[in-house]
């Protein structure tokens, strides 16, 4: 992973939960990695319905991780 312990802070939006809940973070990253091959396969078909469904699964995996482990943008 690209989040070695202590790499937060500064301009990073990573929450401390990345490291304090490492197993949950890894599970979320694995869920994203598991969803992406279906999107690649769907994109190769060119079928909008398949692409949309696969994109929804990838978006759900992204959102789940970002909600739990990423801080909102600073204004």
Which keywords apply here?
about 80 residues; mainly alpha; 3 helices; about 65% helix
Report on this model:
With 75 residues, the chain is mainly α. The protein has helices at residues 17-20, 22-45, 48-69. The model has no long low-confidence stretch (mean pLDDT 91). α2 packs antiparallel against α3 (48-69). The longest helix has 24 residues, at 22-45. It is built from three helices and no strands.
Sheet having the most strands? none
Can you write the helix and strand succession as a string?
HHH
Beta-strand proportion: under 5%
Terminus-to-terminus distance: 28 Å
Structural shape: elongated
Low-confidence stretches: none
Short structural description:
Helix content is 67%, strand content 0%.
Give the helix/strand layout.
Blueprint: H1 17-20, H2 22-45, H3 48-69
